[in-house]
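quick q for whoever's on today - can somebody do inverse folding on this one?? i tried earlier but teh output was garbage lol. tokens:
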């Protein structure tokens, strides 16, 4: 519960809600800056060139942050990228503190997000099924003509 003091200033006791407009804005800003830092500033060879920040969830108290990372490549590239990001976590956090003006700079946890890879796999499977159906329909039409 928030406590009002003199005038309109708010005292301690306020916490930002998880899905508030402010939290959503902070998530977007942190995601954008993390993407820039990972793509342009980190020189670790373990980090794959096609690494993207899919989503970011900053805790309402601004102490922690989950960064969902997608890596285009095989499983080994994804694991190497996670290891490289974890070793550069301190540097990334310092750069984030310089570019994003927050009361606290969150501690970042990198999590591998495979939803894009899953979507590509599902699309490929659907395409294969459609090709098979078309081929089967073509064979049925030829049988009917004969």
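ok took a stab at it. sequence:
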């Amino acid at each position: 519960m928030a406590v009002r003091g003199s005038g309109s200033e708010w005292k301690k006791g306020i916490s930002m809600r998880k899905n508030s407009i402010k939290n959503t804005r902070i998530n977007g800003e942190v995601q954008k800056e993390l993407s820039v830092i990972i793509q342009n500033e980190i020189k670790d060879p373990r980090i794959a060139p096609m690494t993207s920040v899919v989503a970011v969830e900053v805790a309402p108290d601004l102490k922690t942050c989950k960064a969902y990372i997608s890596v285009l490549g095989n499983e080994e590239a994804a694991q190497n990228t996670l290891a490289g990001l974890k070793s550069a976590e301190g540097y990334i956090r310092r750069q984030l503190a310089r570019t994003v003006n927050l009361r606290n700079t969150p501690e970042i946890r990198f999590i591998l997000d495979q939803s894009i890879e899953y979507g590509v796999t599902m699309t490929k499977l659907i395409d294969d099924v459609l090709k098979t159906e078309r081929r089967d329909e073509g064979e049925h039409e030829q049988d009917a003509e004969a």
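fwiw Confidence is low (pLDDT under 50) at residues 1-15. also The beta strands are 51-58, 64-71, 107-112. so keep that in mind when u check it
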